[in-house]
Amino acid sequence: MSRPTSRLLVAIDGPAASGKGTLARRVAGHFGLPHLDTGLLYRAVGWLAGHRGLDPAAAAAGLAMADLAEPGLRGDEAGQAASKVAAIPEVRANLLKFQKDFAAQASGAVLDGRDIGTVICPEAPVKLFVTASLEARADRRYRELRERGVETIRPRVLAEMAERDRRDSERAAAPMKAAPDAYLLDTSDMDADAAFAAAVAFIERKGFRPPGP
Questions:
Q1: What's the rounded Cα separation, in Å, for the pair 88 and 61?
Q2: Alpha-carbon distance 2 to 75, whole Å?
Q3: C-alpha span between 128 and 112 (Å, rounded)
Q4: What is the CATH number of the domain that holds 23?
Q5: CA atoms of 210 and 203, how far apart (whole Å)
Q6: What digits encode the pLDDT tens for the residues 68-89?
Q7: With left for phi above 0 and alpha for psi between -120 and 50, is residue 79 left, alpha or beta?
Q8: Is residue 166 part of a domain?
C-alpha cells in the first residue's frame, strides 16, 4: 500500500495506567514524529495552582513548555490534581491552542490524552483508544508506585483510580470517551511490546510507514 498524501497525525486516548503514554512515545519514535503527553499540561496546571497559588485558568493561559520539565509532575499527587483542574472548562479552553498548535506541525505528531480524538484532533487519520480493566490498571499503578518507593496499599490505589475515572468520564467539559472511529486497544492482558505491535499494525493498515533510512 502506498503512503497516504495526508501527514501522519496520531491521537491516542485512554484512562490512567492503560499504557497509552508508553505506547505513544514508542509510536512517535517508530514513525519519527514529535510527541506530546497532553496529560502533562494538566499536571503542570494543577501543580502551579497547588504549589504557587495560581488560579488554574490563569496558569493554563500562561503555560510554557518549560513548565513541563518540573520533576514533580510525574507523581501521583500531580495526577490527582490534573484530573481536578481538567474538569474546569476555562482550563481546557486555555490549553486548546497549545495542543492544536503542536498537532499542526508539518511533520505530523503523536498526542496522547483523554480528548485528543474527540476534541483536539478530530480530523486525525489515526485514532486509538487504549484501555484496560480497572483491576489491571490499579495493579500497574500500584507496582509503579512501590518501585518508586511510595508507600501505599492496593485498595487505596484502586479507589483513587476509580474516582479519577469517574471524574474524567463524567465531567461536562470534554469527557473521556473513545472517538467513533477510534481503534479500541484493550491492554489488560498485553505487555508493552504486544500493545506496540498491535498499534503499529493498525497504523500501517491505514497506509502509513515509518521513514526510510
A1: 13
A2: 43
A3: 9
A4: 3.40.50.300
A5: 10
A6: 999 889 887 888 898 899 889 9
A7: alpha
A8: yes
Give this prediction's pTM.
0.89
As a whole number of angstroms, the distance between CA 16 and CA 163 comes to: 11
Whether the CB-CB separation of 13 and 128 falls below 8 Å is answered with yes
Please list, in sequence order, all residues whose beta carbon lies within 8 angstroms of the beta carbon of residue 123, skipping any fewer than 6 positions away. 9
Other beta carbons less than 10 A from residue 80's beta carbon: 16
Q: pLDDT tens digits, the chain, 213 residues: what are they?
A: 444 557 999 999 999 999 999 999 999 999 999 999 999 999 999 999 999 999 999 999 999 989 999 988 988 788 889 889 988 999 999 999 999 999 999 999 999 999 999 999 999 999 999 999 999 999 999 998 899 888 899 999 999 999 989 998 998 888 999 999 999 999 999 999 999 999 999 999 999 999 976
* Structural domain contains residue 4: no
Alpha-carbon gap, residue 9 to 52, rounded angstroms: 35
How many domains, the chain?
Answer: 1
**Spatial separation of the C-alpha atoms in residues 138 and 129, rounded to whole Å:** 18
Please give the residue range of the domain that contains residue 159.
9-204
Q: How many CA atoms lie within 13 A of 139 on its CB side?
A: 8
